[in-house]
Amino acid sequence: MVSITLENIVAKKNGRIVLNNVSFHIEQGEYIGLLGPTGSGPSFTLKVIAGINPIESGKLSINGEDMTNVPPEDRNTGFIFEQFNLFPHMTVMDNVLYGPRMRTLNLDEKKREAREILRMVRLDGREGAYPKELSGGMQQRVGIARAVVSGAQILLLDQPYRALDAKIKAEMRFEISELVKELGLTALHSTHETEEAMMISDRIAIFNQGKLQQIGSPEDIFEQPTNQFVAGFLAESNLYTGSVENQKLEVNGIHFRTKSDLSGPVDVIIRHHAVKLSLDGDMEESENIFSGRITKIRVLGEFIRFNIKLKSGLEIISRQLLSLQWRNPQRLLRKPAFIAIRPEDIKVFARGKDKHQKYS
Fold this sequence. Notes:
By secondary structure, the chain is α+β, with helices and mostly antiparallel strands. It is built from 9 helices and 20 strands. The chain folds into 2 domains: 4-228, Rossmann fold (3-Layer(aba) Sandwich), CATH 3.40.50.300; 236-350, CATH 2.40.50.100. The protein has a 6-stranded mixed beta sheet, sandwiched between helices. A 5-stranded antiparallel beta sheet has the order 13-12-11-14-20, covered by helices on one side. A hairpin with a 2-residue loop joins strand 12 (248-251) and strand 13. The chain is elongated and about 75 Å long.
């Protein structure tokens, strides 16, 4: 197992800064999810660690050794792409042995290792198959076996499941992360999908515009986001501006009780799932209960999204799990409704130019 440390990394592409002063440490054997909008830095971070893209300034260390200027072939990394990148004219075994063959290693020894790794990735018996004869999930496992047999101790996965259908993707997420742990690898996994990152990662690093916004366990970053971007990126949210004083928040004429110790102008996030909805006002005791009218309804698979306009004119969205209570939801359009929000579910950030606002 290996550890990785990035210290004040600045990296550019076509003269544009893509990573801006990025620093974090990855422990041995960790599975780290890298999450952010397109072009924000996760995929580029993988390429910097692999040595595909050079570092403008800063330091990259692997197991405490400076690897900033070490060529890619000497970093013991394996890169797994969305497209699998298997040679279509080669069998599974030939694909797995491609790296050792190019490096003129002892093939007899590497064949024994390859058979053991193929057994671990549940592909024993398929050594003679060609990529076109394998499912997408199997091809991805061949890619991992090839990386391990080639000597990789660090696995870099760049949106590896994007080309798979939903059912296979759901299965592969857990299968690959468990396999990586079993093989004793340290892994970084770039994705744009919040759900995917939350499911598979020991910790998640969230990027925006080339800067690392927050890194922590899935639970920590979800419950304690460091700024408004992180809070809004992890879950669909209602976004407002307002002011707070003595834990009382005012937004568009409505007063909420919060847990915030801030004072003055603030940015406010209330996640859709945190807005409880009732048609008859029969709700658990809450310090924030308001009445309004349902103005829009959207069915989103197993969830329904309700837009409620409160008497003050403030519009708020509530997401509810599809159930008998909400059967035939369009019948509820323009009906009166009540919402309730727990004070601790109102996330408040001090307003200002600094995107790393104080959160309370």
